Amino acid sequence: MAPRAVLLYLSFTSPPVPSPQTFFVTQFPLPSPITDPNEADFASPLDDGHVIAGFVNCFSNYSSFLAKPGLYIEQIFVREPWRRKGLGKFMLSAVVKKAAELGDGKG
């Protein structure tokens, strides 16, 4: 099973141009800008002016119960300034959607 990366892009503007990497882009509706005092510490490694708000760490697995491949969610984290805005639920929903698109698990 090939490694998979899921990128969630949060922005008031349009999403970035897709790269050759395997990922999908989806947008999270932010009602207003977020005040993030540690924004510089969590800047995107792409140096594109974006900030990392959180992550979901998941990997491919195989369900003996379902007898099919799936995605196992190991960790989910949302940074403090971004919490209580629905981002965690949004990230989990995005992983479930991607698993369903790939034909994995219960999606």
UniProtKB/TrEMBL annotation:
Keyword Glycoprotein belongs to the record: no
N-acetyltransferase domain segment(s): 30-103
InterPro entries, per the entry: Acyl_CoA_acyltransferase, Diverse_Substrate_AcTransf, GNAT_dom
Entry superkingdom: Eukaryota
Key words of the record: Acyltransferase, Transferase
GO MF annotations in UniProt: N-acetyltransferase activity
SUPFAM superfamilies, alphabetized: Acyl-CoA N-acyltransferases (Nat)
Identification of the protein by name: Putative acetyltransferase NATA1-like protein
